[in-house]
Fold DegT/DnrJ/EryC1/StrS family aminotransferase.
Amino acid sequence: MPARPVAAVPFLPWNRPSIGPEEEAEVLDTLRSGWLTHGPKATRFEEAVREALGAQDAFAVSSCTAAVHLALLAARIGPGDEVITPSLTFCAVPNAVVQCGAAPVFADIDQVTFNLDPAAAEAAITPRTKAIAVMHYAGQPCDLAAFRKLADDHQLLLIEDAAHALHAWRDGARAGSVGDLTVFSFYANKVITCGEGGLLAGRGDLVEQARLLGRHGIDSSAWRRHGERRTAEYDVAVPGLKYTMPDITAAVGLRQWAKLADFTAARARIADAYDRSLAGLPGLRLPTVLEEVRHGWFLYPVLIDPVRGRTRDTVADALRDVHGIGTSVHFKPVHRLAAYRNPETYLPVTEQVAARELSLPCYPAMTAADVQRVIDAVHTLWR
Ligand SMILES: Cc1ncc(COP(=O)(O)O)c(C=O)c1O
């Protein structure tokens, strides 16, 4: 492995959270309040997101994966059922589908946005299909209107995995506001973070059921039970799980939520700088943003054509080893992972994109000098 020559320059990670004194003060306030688990702050966080989406209800949970699991359980998706999903995504949705005893069915993506292709999803519908779980790749919402119509025409549940798209729109509709249920992630690298955390929003009947399932099947919160001193008066209506978001976490989430628009604006400025400075390099395809989209810019994904020994992997290695710059890959397709390998799965666009995709650093904590450093490094590699 070549040595990194510029020891004086610190490594620029692919991602770093932006946590300030506001988050620190809010957590301290929670720690001193005497109420640490899901309580007033988690409820305020839920209400803020619910209102922004115009959703009927919202439930703050321990992770996006927990939100997906609860969504599927609340919708009674189980053995014999199928859920259509892209393969160019994180494993959370397919894993949760399998955990419910159902089967994920992978459909191909479109060439431009790398989102699930509505025509491919339609072709994958069978009498067993119960839901379509779309994912807004990189923060560019999928064709929400097309998927809403497809779900309605076939009486399927539409789930939005909006882990990348807390602050993004398409045709005026906010990502997360169209599906029957939507899940968000507040994992450490996401557009806003609580370290670990997630949220489920959408139809009131389904979120209510998910809330019940996510609190052991107990039909009132610990906050209400203990706060109103009715500790003994609880019952378990259904065998549930424990997926609630604690207030320590929600304290961070609330303060991050207040910064979301600024964070997205900062990400958009970085994307714009990359667009202007990296355009025209041969074999380097920059992201295409559809006219009807307000992009959330969780990722800045480029495609690198394998030409004359330069591949996605050689570029990633050189950026890391020579220039001290971290990158990431989104994603290794799920149908290529050991648990999901199936020789019959044929997803040509997914394969083509997955072999070429590299995510450049794009986050609010980057300085203008950091952005320029990435641009200069890429130009050096293309010389
Ligand atoms: C598209 C997508 N969905 C779901 C998740 C899972 O999120 P969490 O770690 O909050 O469970 C991730 C996490 O990276 C993701 O990228």
